[in-house]
Known about the structure:
Blueprint (H helix, E strand, L loop, with lengths): L1 H9 L7 H37 L7 H19 L1 H11 L1
Keywords: Membrane, Transmembrane, Transmembrane helix
Amino acid sequence: MAIALLYLYSSNCLAEGQYGLARFVSFIHILFLCLSIFIYTMIGGIIIKFILQKSNLLVENQTRNAFAISLLIAILFAVFFEDDFIYYLWNQI
């Protein structure tokens, strides 16, 4: 079933309801990208927070700063490396 749906999506033909299928696949793609950014933000935020705690720097709001930096890094990776980077990291887990 999944192979048939992928074939219909990759054929770029908009006949007999394939437009709805293409919109559904695009929605899933956007959802997957947002989920990936969220996961990498959480992982990066935890790592940066750990580094800030171990370095004994007097940084106010360490948690907020760590997750803000991590979110920016995750978005920049998603923008510059597009989907290849996200799919590569996601498939390695």
